[in-house]
Each structure stands twice: as C-alpha cells, then as structure tokens.
C-alpha cells in the first residue's frame, strides 16, 4: 500500500457521473496497488457498481480520468477495458445457460469464422488456467447444469482467458455457502500470488477483513475513506459507510415461547414446473419466538414460504394455522390465509411484495384492497387509504413520506419498510419474513431487526427465512437449516457456529459432524 | 446495484410531447410522399384540415368516425391495463353488431326508448361473449391471447358472411345485408340539436357519441377507482405480486376481456343503430384494428383515447375529402398517410423518447440555475 515505484494498477482521478438528477459518483479518486486485493464497501446505492461499470466501459463518466498501470486510458466500451487487462465478474452472471462452459468462455473471442481452431486453443489454455488457480470445472458441462458456485468459477475463467490482469468481482459471495466462499477466497489469494490485482465489491465487512489488503469506503456517491485493512475494524468501516455509529449486534432478551401458532407436518410442495421443492418438512413456530430458516438460496425456502403463505397449493402433508388447516393455492389462497392471521413479507419485494409502477399508497394496500375499511362498495376510498398509508409511513420512518410517489422511486430500504409496515400493521399472529434485509442499507437493517424483535416480544410468532447467516444467528431463538427441500436439523443459536451451519447447508448431517 | 437511472422528465412531457413529436414525424414523412407524387404538401394539409373541420357536415362526419374509434380504443386500452393485447376488437365489434341486429330484428317494433337499451345490452353481451372464449383459453389453458383473438377475427368474419348470406339476408334481395329493422334508431346529433332549436348540418353523427363519452368516464372510474380495477392493474403490472396478494389472475383476465369485448361491441350502436339501421357485411370496417393505434397513442387513458380518436376521425374524414379534391391523391394514398400515423404513434411509440428526454435534460439545469440565481 505504501508509496513505491510501481505504478498503481488502477488509478481513478476525479470520476464524476450523474443519471439525471441522481449524482451517482462525485469526484471519485481511487488508487489500487498492483498485486493487491482491494475492497470497496458501501451501502446499496452508494455508487460502487456505477463506478465499476465506468471502469468496465458500461457507462461513460461525465468527467475524470482513468489510468491503468500508469497509462491514461480512454474506456469507451467493454472491449477497451478487456484490452487493458480488466476482467469483471458480475453479481448476476452473464452466461448462456444452454451453452457449455467452453462455449461460454470463448463467447466473443471465438477467433475466426469456424469454431474448431478457437476451441482447440481454448482447451489447452483453460487446462493450464484450471491447474494454476484451483479452478476445476468440467469444461464440457452445460452451464445450466452447474451449481452457482461453479458458474462463478466459469466467470472468473472467462475473465482470465481474456488475459485479465485486474479482476473486478461484484458481490461475489452473495450466492455461495460459507465453504464455497472460502474456496473462492483461496482462488483469489492464488491469483494475487500470481501478481494479479483484485477489486472486491461487497457489503459484507467480514469478507473485507478476511481477504483484502486495503479498503475504500463509499457513501452516497462519494469516496469517504481509504484504509489499510490491517489498521481498521468492522466497527469503523460500518460507521464510515453509514455516516454514524451503528449497532451491528442485535440486542434482545430471552424468548418466552407460548402455544404453537403454526404447525407444519410432513409438508410437500412443488414449484411452478411441478418439481418437488419441499420434501416432507415438519416444524412449528410458537407465539413469542423467532424461528430462523437458514440455507443457501434455492434449496426450497422460497417454495416453503409460498406454500405457507397460501400462494401455492400444498401437494402433501398438513399446515395448521391457529389450529385451522389450509391448503392454499389460487385463486384466493393467499387472501384466505391472511384472514387466518398470517402476514407475509416476501423474499423479493420488487417482484412480489410491491407493484413497482404503482404509487406508494396503492402498493401499501396490496393484499388488503378488499378490506371493508378501504372501500365503499366497489369504489376504493382513496382519502382513507392515503391517510392510512401516511400514518404507516410515519410509524416506520419511510422517506420520503410521500404516498403519491411511485413505489420504484423509493430506495431499497424504504421499499422494504413499506412492505414491513403494511404487514406488521395488520397485527398478525404470525409473520413470515423472507430475506428482510436483502439490498437494504445498514441503517435500515438495524431498524428492521428491532421491529422483528418487538414483534416477538409482543407475543407474535415470527418465521424468518434468510441466506444471511449473521442475521439468522443474531435474530433467531431456534435455527432450522434447509437443504434440498428438507430440514437438516435444528440448532440453538447458542450452539450455532458458522462451520456447523455451513456444513448443514451443504447437506452434511449434523451427526456426521460430531463424528468428524 | 447499478445507480438508478433517474428520470427527471416530467410525466406530462412523456404523455403530451412525445405523441405530438410522433405525429409531426408522421406528417413530415407523409409530406415527402406527397412531394414525390408531385403535389404540394402544404396544400394537402390545408385540404385535410378543412375537410375534417372546415364545415358543419365535416365536423359531423369526423365525430361520427371518432365515436367508432373511442369504443374500439377504449376496448384495447382496457385490456392493456391487464397486460392483455386484445387484437380481436374487430371481431368483437362485428359480433356485437350481430347482437344488436338480433335484438333489432326481433323487437324492431318497440319504441326507441326501449329498443335502444335492449340493443346496448345485446351489443355488450355478444361482444363480451366473443372476447370471453379467448380470455378463458388464455386464463385457463395459456393459449396466447394475441393468437386466439386474431383467429377469432377470422371466425367472426366467416360466421357473419354465412349468417348474412344464408340466414339474415333480406328476403328477395341479392345484397348480403339484413332488412332495415328500425327506422329511427339512435337519433343523429343534428336532430337532437334541432330539438333545442340549434341548426346543424345533417350528418351520421349521432347520440352514440354521448354514450362513448360516458364509457370513457366509466372506464376511468373502473380502472383507477375500484377494487376490481386495482386487482386488474396488479395482475397486469405484476402477476407475481397479484398471486402474493391473493388476487385471482384467471378472474381478472376473464373479466377484463369481457369488458373489453363489450366496449368493442358498442361500435355497432354507432354504425348500425345510429346510421345504417340494418346489419351489413363488413360494417366494422377495420375500426377494431385502428383502435389498437388509438389506444397506444392515447396511452390507454380515456382522455388520450378521445383525443386520438378525434385525430383518426379527422384523418378518415379529411382524407376522404382530400382524395375527392386532389384526384392524384387516391384513397390508397390517404391510407398510406393514416398508416404512417399508426406506425409512428403506435409501433414506434418510443422512438424519439431519448431525444425528447435529452432536450428536457438540456433545458432543466438552465431552469434550475435560473431559479438559483433569483
């Protein structure tokens, strides 16, 4: 990090970018030393991704200069960045599912009209890269058949194959188990040892501490601090990100669970395509406790939530809510379940919990538009709904407090608060919450966690589904781990460690663990 | 996540400026076509406008056509709000006309005050029924509504040919059309104005126009002010959120399409009850298809639909006048001009959006700078 003769791998000087009225990057300066792992942290919407998109030629900066290895570079398109040796691994992979690994890697670098020559060359080169960096992948497998962890490796291989010396990874661990994340970090270390430079964009401070050499913090489009990782702490970084002191640990007392509100027996459920996703699951949630369901995303949690909330019809087993059974499913399953005393904060607020083009007051009655208090006959009583909506916005500190603003114009955290306010305000007996803090800034996370604990302390049952282990461990009174549609076991938060949960999330029985 | 693409363009700019820009573009290209033919575009525009609005009879005809476009435009708009592309307005209008005619042929002896409401019910029921089948297939079987409604236009056309040639044909006539079943029908506007002592030149423009305006208000209320409209828009914008909210997608699709079909069916009120007083072949004359352009241009809002309908009505009437005044500009060429408007306003709706936005962005900082300087 210290001054030396080697030019920095990347130097950004005075980068500035606006989208209309939104000033996404304000006069950004950044120095990334060659051969280092450099972290960039910041809340959602802080401008990290915009900055990297400028570096990679997706956007053109309004002002500022980019130097790569000391040379000034005009990056007009991604190809310029690739030519300069910059490779990018996106948060959402840019792969063609129906192509093989090899075909994906040579995509855009086929080397001629006929594939044969390019393919043969690529095979040799890929074998070398795989060996060198512990990046084993079956290069003839179809992308669609690979788990996400391997797909990510393909993205890395793709960048390396194009001769990347500088690798940018955008939120790379979001979809990985802790073990897969560890493996990724080993790969990154190997790359670093070979002299590559790595830029890691993340909001997980633990990862920053674990792997980076230096870290830069962004807040509201500005670069607010640069630190050597060894000389900083998660607390300091969190404070820098948010701009004030934050409580990373959740304060909560002992739970005093009461009667079972939700009982699930041997439940099976399928997804839209008819694939069985929930395979005989049994558990209960009692009043006054938070039960957390941990697991890597895509192991049936979403389908479990859909079944429990009445969105899809269950295909086997039993669900009892306040002692009453239901099977759910269209046309009105979800509406019926609401009347039984359940509220549901869905995993994906943009796709499910809100209607993005609707005005906030309209989104704030989603699922409750047939309520008597909101309508006179078939006519929606707009003043009443708007008043109600404003009251909830006040109670949940939604900003801006404007019921006529289009839902999509609120930030992620405020959108989530609109959903949460709508569901908690119904005073349900049980609240289902999926990924309550996904894409939500730290300040709002703190607020949301507090509200969930309050729900619990008010004697409500809460079922929390999250892929964030920290969240599960700090909020839950009991932890269930889900893998491949089944519940691998129950762990009390006192006994839960990341290693145990991680193994269970990967499908290893807890009993096997004790033997090991 | 990438930074939000902030749209600082005021909503009215998108709704008002963009259609006007599209219209100008369509007219510029039309002007080129006219030039190539060797006529003076300015003169053509002059005749077009005069032919559409220049005298009382012209206004009457323009609004008579506009009435048709309001009904079909509303029909398409309604379905758009549920994200359904109802291409079948033509067939629904045609079959709606059958409903009117059956009522008319059976009860033609009744006084208009009774007969007309019955005809409205007939139009709505038959139009809705013709839309119900594709809606049911879409909702329950996933058959794409675009395909099925197109097919249903053909079926409607064939059914009507069969009925008019074999069943409903006026006895002793060689024309495939029914007998005249009501002499009075819906009163024309010039007559209605006459009751009030106002003189207005005779034209087919009739009181269906008022019903069209009432339908605009009803559609507006339904879409934005009822629980059903809320459910429909939720299904249309985000079906996943609808299933989360416990809103039945199936029900919304079927109800919306039936309303859409009923609105299209009202076309027959204007054409049959208001003008021909008999069922004739192809009376729906393509209005159902142009309704798609009207809905697109009107941004699926009743006010926009009205304005777009009047524009297309003017193009129809002014165009007819034009081909009469300048013989080199044939009917076909008039259709070319109408087609250009449809292409620019409908199919290429958003082509100029970046440019319009750029202009606004260029204007905005100066405005805010000026505000700051004050």
Secondary structure blueprint with pairings:
The complex is a heterodimer of chains A (516) and B (374).
Chain A: E1 10-19, E2 22-32, E3 37-42, H1 48-55, E4 63-68, E5 71-73, H2 78-83, E6 86-89, H3 101-106, H4 115-133, H5 148-161, E7 166-170, H6 178-193, E8 197-202, H7 205-211, E9 214-219, E10 222-228, H8 234-242, E11 260-270, E12 276-286, E13 290-294, H9 301-308, E14 316-321, E15 324-325, H10 333-339, E16 342-345, H11 349-353, H12 360-363, E17 375-376, E18 379-380, H13 382-395, H14 412-424, E19 430-434, H15 442-457, E20 461-465, H16 469-475, E21 478-483, E22 486-491, H17 498-505, H18 510-515
Parallel strand pairs in A: 3-8, 3-9, 6-7, 7-8, 13-20, 13-21, 16-19, 19-20
Antiparallel strand pairs in A: 1-2, 1-4, 4-5, 9-10, 11-12, 11-14, 14-15, 17-18, 21-22
Chain B: H1 11-37, H2 41-53, H3 56-81, H4 89-107, H5 112-141, H6 145-167, H7 189-195, H8 208-225, H9 227-237, H10 239-245, H11 249-265, H12 267-276, H13 287-297, H14 302-325, H15 331-347, H16 353-373
Helix pairs in contact in B: 1-15, 2-3, 2-14, 3-8, 3-11, 3-12, 3-13, 3-14, 4-5, 4-6, 4-11, 4-12, 4-13, 5-6, 5-11, 5-12, 8-9, 8-14, 9-10, 9-11, 13-14, 13-15, 14-15
Explain the overall architecture.
The complex is a heterodimer of chains A (516) and B (374). By secondary structure, chain A is of the alpha/beta class. In chain A, 34% of the residues lie in helices and 25% in strands. The radius of gyration of chain A is 25 Å and the shape is globular. In chain B, helix 1 packs antiparallel against helix 15, helix 4 packs antiparallel against helix 5 and helix 8 packs antiparallel against helix 14. The longest helix of chain B has 30 residues. Chain B is mainly α. Chain B has a domain of 242 residues. At the A-B interface, strand 2, helix 1, helix 10, helix 11 and strand 18 of A face helix 9, helix 10 and helix 11 of B.
């Amino acid at each position: 990090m210290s001054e030396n003769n080697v030019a920095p791998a990347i130097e950004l000087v005075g980068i500035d970018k606006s989208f209309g009225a939104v000033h996404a990057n304000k006069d950004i300066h950044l120095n990334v030393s060659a051969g280092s792992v450099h972290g960039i942290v910041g809340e959602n919407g802080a401008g990290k991704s915009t900055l990297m998109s400028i570096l990679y030629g997706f956007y053109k900066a309004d002002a500022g200069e980019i130097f790569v290895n000391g040379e000034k570079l005009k990056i007009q398109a991604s190809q310029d960045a690739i030519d300069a040796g910059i490779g990018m691994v996106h948060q959402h992979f840019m792969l063609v599912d129906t192509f093989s690994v090899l075909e994906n890697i040579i995509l855009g670098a086929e080397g001629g009209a006929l594939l044969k020559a390019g393919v043969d060359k690529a095979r040799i080169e890929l074998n070398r890269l795989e060996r060198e960096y512990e990046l084993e992948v079956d290069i003839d497998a179809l992308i669609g058949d690979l788990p996400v962890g391997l797909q990510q490796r393909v993205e890395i291989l793709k960048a390396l194959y194009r001769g990347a010396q500088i690798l940018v990874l955008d939120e790379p661990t979001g979809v990985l188990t802790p073990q897969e994340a560890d493996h990724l970090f080993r790969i990154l270390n190997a790359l670093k040892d070979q002299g590559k430079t790595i830029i890691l964009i993340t909001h997980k401070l633990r990862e920053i501490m674990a792997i980076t050499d230096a870290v830069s913090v962004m807040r509201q489009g500005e670069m607010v601090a640069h630190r050597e990782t060894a000389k900083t702490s998660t607390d300091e970084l969190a404070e820098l990100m948010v701009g004030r002191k934050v409580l990373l640990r959740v304060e909560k007392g002992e739970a005093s669970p009461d009667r079972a509100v939700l009982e699930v027996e041997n439940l099976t459920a399928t997804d839209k395509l008819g694939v069985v996703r929930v395979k005989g699951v049994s558990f209960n949630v009692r009043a006054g406790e938070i039960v957390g369901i941990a697991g890597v995303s895509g192991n049936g949690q979403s389908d479990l939530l859909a079944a429990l909330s009445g969105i899809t019809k269950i295909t086997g087993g039993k669900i009892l809510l306040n002692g009453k059974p239901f099977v759910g499913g269209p046309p009105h399953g979800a509406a019926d379940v609401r009347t039984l005393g359940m509220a549901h904060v869905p995993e994906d607020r943009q796709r499910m919990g809100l209607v993005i083009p609707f005005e906030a007051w309209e989104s704030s009655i989603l699922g409750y538009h047939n309520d008597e208090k909101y309508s006179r006959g078939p006519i929606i009583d707009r003043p009443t709904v708007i008043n109600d909506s404003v009251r909830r916005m006040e109670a949940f500190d939604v900003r801006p407090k404007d019921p006529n603003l289009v839902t999509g114009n609120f930030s992620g955290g405020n959108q989530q608060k609109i959903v949460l306010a709508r569901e908690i305000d119904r005073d349900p007996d049980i609240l289902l919450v999926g990924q309550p803090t996904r894409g939500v800034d730290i300040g709002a996370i703190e607020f949301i966690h507090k509200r969930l604990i309050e729900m619990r302390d008010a004697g409500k049952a809460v079922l929390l589904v999250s892929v964030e282990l920290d969240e599960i461990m700090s909020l839950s009174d009991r932890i269930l781990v889900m893998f491949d549609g089944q519940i691998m076991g129950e762990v009390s938060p006192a006994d839960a460690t990341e290693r145990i949960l991680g193994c269970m999330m990967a499908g290893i029985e807890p009993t096997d663990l004790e033997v090991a | 996540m990438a930074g939000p693409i902030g749209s600082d363009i005021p909503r009215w700019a998108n709704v008002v400026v963009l259609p006007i820009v599209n219209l100008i573009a369509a007219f510029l290209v039309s002007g080129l076509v006219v030039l190539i033919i060797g006529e003076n575009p300015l003169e053509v525009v002059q005749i077009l406008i005069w032919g559409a609005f220049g005298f009382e009879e012209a206004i009457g005809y323009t609004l008579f056509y506009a009435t048709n476009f309001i009904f079909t435009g509303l029909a398409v708009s309604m379905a758009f709000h549920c994200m359904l592309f109802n291409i079948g307005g033509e067939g629904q209008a045609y079959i709606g006309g059958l409903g009117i005619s059956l009522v008319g042929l059976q009860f033609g002896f009744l006084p208009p005050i009774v007969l007309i409401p019955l005809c409205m019910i007939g139009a709505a029921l038959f139009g809705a029924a013709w839309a119900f089948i594709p809606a049911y297939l879409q909702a329950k079987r996933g058959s794409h509504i675009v395909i099925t409604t197109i097919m249903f236009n053909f079926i409607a056309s064939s059914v009507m040919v069969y009925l008019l040639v074999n069943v409903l044909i006026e006895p002793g006539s060689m024309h495939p059309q029914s007998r005249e079943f009501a002499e009075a029908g819906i009163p024309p506007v010039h007559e209605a104005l006459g009751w009030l002592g106002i003189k207005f030149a005779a034209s087919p423009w009739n009181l269906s126009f008022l019903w069209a305006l009432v339908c605009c208000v009803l559609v507006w209320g339904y879409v934005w002010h009822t629980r059903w409209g809320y459910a429909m828009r939720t299904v249309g914008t985000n079906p996943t959120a609808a299933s989360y909210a416990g809103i039945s997608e199936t029900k919304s699709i079927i109800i919306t399409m039936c309303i859409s079909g009923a609105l299209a069916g009202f076309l027959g009120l204007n054409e049959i009850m208001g003008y021909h007083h008999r069922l004739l072949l192809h009376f729906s004359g393509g209005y159902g298809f142009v309704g798609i352009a009207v809905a697109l241009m009107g941004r699926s809002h009743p006010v926009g639909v009205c304005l777009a309908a009047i524009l297309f009505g003017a193009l129809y009437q002014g165009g007819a006048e034009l081909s009469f005044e300048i013989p080199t500009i044939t009917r076909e060429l008039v259709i070319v001009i109408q087609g250009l408007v449809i292409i620019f306003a409908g199919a290429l709706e958003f082509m100029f959006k970046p440019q319009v936005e750029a202009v606004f962005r260029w204007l905005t900082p100066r405005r805010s700078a000026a505000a700051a300087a004050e």
